[in-house]
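Two proteins, back to back. First:
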Amino acid sequence: MSDKKAVEKAVCLIVDDIAFDRRMMRRVVGKSCPGLPMIVAHNLGEARRRLRERTVSILFLDNSLPDGRGVDFVSELAEDRNLRRVPVIIVSDFPSPFMYAKAQAANVREVWSKREFVAPAVQRAVCTHALH
């Protein structure tokens, strides 16, 4: 970990490839947790870079991305000793029973539909799961 990364405040990482959904998520996080810095990634490759560059306190991760599935990415994170502690909330248009099972096995904290991405849920998730 770089010295710069060690002294920066931990951030919320939002990963979604749809601009409308990213804007909605940023707006909800901003209103429900105004002091929490946010960064975004449009795909898993960009998410990997962001996770190497910054300390992430909580990750809101879309499941369907152009370069892979969020639920598979979480399994990848679980294998990395530096990233396995990052709390992940998977946010999907249509969560399936298979996705829930795979997410549970990968230690995902919660699985939400995008309709469930509302201020009270975000505030509760950040207070309950975020690394401080």
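And the second protein:
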Amino acid sequence: MSATRLLVLGVVRGYGRAHGYLIGNDLISWGAGDWANIKWGSIYHALKQLTKDGYLDEDWPVPGRTDYQLTEAGEFEYKRLLAEAFRRPQPRPDMLFAGLAMLPSLEREEAIGLLEQRLAHLESARAEAAEKLDGWQEPPHVRELYGLWVHTADGGISWTRGLIDRLRSGEYPMAGDPGSPGVAGSWPLPA
């Protein structure tokens, strides 16, 4: 549920205040159902749990609608989840995908630093897999597993280096940049 938590906190943070339907519409329109397995039920479950955990406050501005705002603890949890999404590769990619959806929330140098940590983890994992690949004996077909890990790490290394380079060259508006959508409460409400 961490990817869902990150995305829900991120959308609430982006708007400053949001209700479940607005959050769900954004996430579904971004394709999060495909890349993060987000469904309407998981969004509302996350809202309830995040409120129970003290990360969101509820308000009822109109009958039948609940609006949510991040608490101070919610801002901290959002930043923690976002950093973790980039810092360390995970077996499942949904946290990275969620982190990428919220990338502008980070200041440029912070994002680069987190991606450099990711790069170091990937390079270490690649070296370990290559060592096992080179020394593997029995059963011989298991070598393919280590070969796949080497190629997967190579792809992750290449992509991570590319994103670091793009961020260094000024691509994408990041928190701290003029007009950045990464500032809490800066997203315009849909018409």
